[in-house]
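Quick one: structure tokens for this chain, please?
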Amino acid sequence: MDNQGRKEKILAHAAALGTSGAKIIDPGQVPVDNKFVGFCKHCPGYGSSMSCPPNVKGPDWFREYLKTFDQVLVFKFDVPTPVLLSDDRHQVTRLIHETAAGIEVFATANGYARAHGFAGGSCKQVFCGQYLECRVLSGDGLCRNPDLARQSMSGMGVDFMKLTRILGWKMETITRATDSEKISMGMMVGMVLLEEDRGEPLHG
């Protein structure tokens, strides 16, 4: 199967997982800005897991890492503003992690030698909120959810607003002061880095 066929197959899988949209872009189009790591310090999940700052390699590493991939699949979920302003947003965050992981596994099995998913939000909050500490961070063992939890896009410095503009998606900034009657929908985004394995057969 040629490159276009591979793209169509993985985009179809993203759609089957229930995403509101998915597109594939070149790695060089992903905007990375170091300032976004600073914003993570205001998140309750900051420092609580190995997938969030300050425990990830960060923007400088990510810029170089992006260069080793051929394509980037970015997916989104459109989410009602009231959900984003409530504790229900954690369920959407979990969905972003699960979707990034699911696309990653599918891509690896279908012609991409490497696939690496990234999500938004703290994996500690959505997968291990009932535990006092991240087991990896505390040194007490391996990750409880290695098949689902993915590293933070913000921790890598990804500029969400600029990225969505590049993709042609209209993303509104949602804060606690947002009037949900004026801005009824928001968006959450994840991504999977892709490198083609041109010699591998595809599976159904």
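The chain has eight helices and five strands.
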